[in-house]
Amino acid sequence: MATNKKQPLTLCVTSGKGGVGKTSFTVNFALALSRNDSRVLVIDGDMGLANVDVLLRLSVKTNVRDILESGADPRQALIFARPNLAVLPGSSGVPEMVSLGTQQQERLAGFIRQVAADFDYVIIDTAAGIGESVLWYNQFADHNIFILSPDPTSMTDAYALIKLLCRDYGINHFNLVLNFVRGLREGNHTVDTINRVTQRFLKLKLAHLGNIPEDKAVRRAVLDQVPFVEQTPGSKATRAIHDLAQRVHSLI
């Protein structure tokens, strides 16, 4: 008897500003999800300056650019970093990959759907900013997760991207994760501040998924190229990531 296979949930992890810990969040969040026997695929969507492989110390032989150019099976580019965690590497130092044309976007969408069928979660780590690939990935995904810090410039840039996606692409649900938070009060103040702006000008209330506290273990793990959920399983940041992973599906 035929059975209906559950479709993977595709999450786009994005930010307006660089330097907010987006890729580190993606890698550690994906690992946390995979601990519950979920099969997780991370797609490095930073088409010009990919670095998911750097944080996981992966040796890349084939990347997204190679697949797009050759038309080969995208499964050939997958790297299993852990038993339940695979990575589809992006390209680095290739300017033409930053702005994909319509045909390339359609081919990429087909490749992603083809390879995603074997997974429960697909997590796309986009570039920072408002480039074409960032906008396209946000439209392609089922849900987004915006990473921002309490830094006013981070909030300003996140709002710029949210406004663009809302007004020009009809996306009206946004999920926030605050990174580098120095306490609950600071986290709540940051969320309240950006929500006041989006409610006033866009008539949108953003969903707050949770906070990742400022933690020296995170920077140490990045320098060591080891995910902090593995290097320091008892750290504050690790506990926060696992809490997010446990409730993200029910929240969105």
Automatic annotation (TrEMBL):
Keywords: ATP-binding, Nucleotide-binding
GO molecular-function terms, A-Z: ATP binding; ATP hydrolysis activity
Highest rank taxon of the organism: Bacteria
GO cellular component: cytoplasmic side of plasma membrane; cytosol
Residues reported in the UniProt entry to bind ATP: K17, G18, G19, V20, G21, K22, T23, S24
Listed GO biological process terms: negative regulation of cell division
InterPro entries with a match to the protein in the record: FlhG, MinD_FleN, P-loop_NTPase, ParA/MinD_ATPase, YlxH/NBP35
Protein name: Site-determining protein
Originating species: Desulfosarcina ovata subsp. ovata
